[in-house]
Amino acid sequence: AGTHTVYTIAMDNAGNEAEGKTVNFIVQSTGQDITPPVTGIAFSAPSFGTAPVYISSLTAISLSASDGLSGVAAVYYSIDSDTFSVYAGAFRAAQEGGHAVKYYSADAAGNIEAVKTSSVTVDNTAPVSTFNVAGSSLVINGSLYIISGSSAALSAFDGAAGVKEIYYSLDGST
User: What's the CA gap between 18 and 12, in Å, rounded?
Assistant: First the structure.
């Protein structure tokens, strides 16, 4: 254990000698913690994707940290800010739109993990579905009449997370 210096000179078989180099290094005694903790992030349902992760304001965001020697002293997080709060349990991002969730941990030996960032997009808006008729149709007294030989199609649009599925029922069928 302690601080050491090594001076090296290399020589080849032809007698060429390299310029000497000095390397300083520190040997840490076994068990001394010099490694920062590692923090992970997880999202409850509903969540989709990776960069960004699409969530709703109901999605719980959880952090977990581990440290092999001295133990985790604290976990910190922020949403859209460089001002961090101490993590005390799952939290949510409520405001619709894109957000940067930043997080890191510190261990009992004073090692601090580099700040990590996860991009999330809160999508609380349902998709919009449409019923389109190709061919002849007309509306009489609020009722849609489709002329024989025409076709109908369903479509949906979602401006954030995208449409996952479209369900339909014709005359009460399942």
Answer: 9
